[in-house]
Amino acid sequence: MRSFSSLFCFIGPILLALLPAAVSGQPNYTYATPYAITTLAGTTSAGHEDGVNGRFFQLADVAVDAAGNLYIADTGNHIIRKRAPNGTVSTLAGVATVPGTADGTGTAAQFAAPSGIAIDGSGNLYVADRNTHIIRKISPAGSVTTLAGTGLSKGSTDGLGAAARFNTPVAVAVDAGGNVYVADLGNRTIRKITPAGNVTTLAGSPGQSGSTDGTGASARFYGPEGIAVDAAGYLFVADGGTIRKISPSGETITFAGSADNWATVDGTGTAARFAYADGSGRSRQSVRQLPQQHGAQGIVHRRGDHPGGHFRPAGQHGWRWIVRALHPPGRHRRGCGRQCLCARLGQQHDPEDRP
Hints:
Blueprint: H1 7-11, H2 19-23, E1 36-43, E2 51-52, E3 59-64, E4 70-74, E5 79-83, E6 88-93, E7 104-105, E8 114-119, E9 125-129, E10 134-138, E11 143-148, E12 159-160, E13 169-174, E14 180-184, E15 189-193, E16 198-203, E17 214-215, E18 224-229, E19 235-239, E20 242-246, E21 251-257, E22 285-293, E23 296-303, E24 321-327
Antiparallel strand pairs: 1-24, 2-6, 3-4, 4-5, 5-6, 7-11, 8-9, 9-10, 10-11, 12-16, 13-14, 14-15, 15-16, 17-21, 18-19, 19-20, 20-21, 22-23
């Protein structure tokens, strides 16, 4: 669940695994905290085996529950995985390497490139199922249902449950009231799903690209790929070279970065710069930290510094399939993000760009 206590995790730890590579051969930066990074699960070899450590393929996001269980969107395998506190990895739902739209319990369910995951206070998981253009819900008992959208049918229609349409949803967040927020990448909008399943467009206009601040449909997004919500109901969205902030009433402002000036400059608010990855795998790999706001602290993963990502990153090219942990010496922080760390757990980024 992406609360802003988890914004820490939300954006950045996503591609943590590449941080050492980012530091090597790159300009010197000021590091806010001397984080230690450890491997929690997986190896440098892709696969879908369960067991101690387990193996993964193209990890996309993580969430953590109150008991310390880690839930992983294993995008390349089309499954949702669970890592218990004792380190054992199991498959919670879906069939490895078999994409689909079927609802059901355990292996009776199917996913197609699950790319975003969040958890609510009751232990329900919410999944942005990217390639089927639907939002799924997984109960604590492991029952998978379709919360909104219709499998393999994309669009931008608002409506109740199956009447709604999405276009490549890649990230989700859930607030204390059970409202689910979706980064609808293909539509360049932010959607809201009530507990009753009613879908509305909170900000942005379908198919309209830009960086304009404004309220509701007057706002524009370049490519929203990461989303988090704080305790006060404010949303934070990783969007191109900027971090956007959306109020509960739907007012969108630019919180950090500049849409027209992509670089790797640290600073305050719009004086900071982020840069979009060029897809070559040669751009910077690092983690950025945002100031505390509404009781939360944000970390932005820098991959050419595009803040896509919970505040996830977007368009990742990586070469490992492991879950990493990021924590300052002597303490742990809770939170979650798409390819990020949650509740003291971190995840490596996705080895392939999303479409």
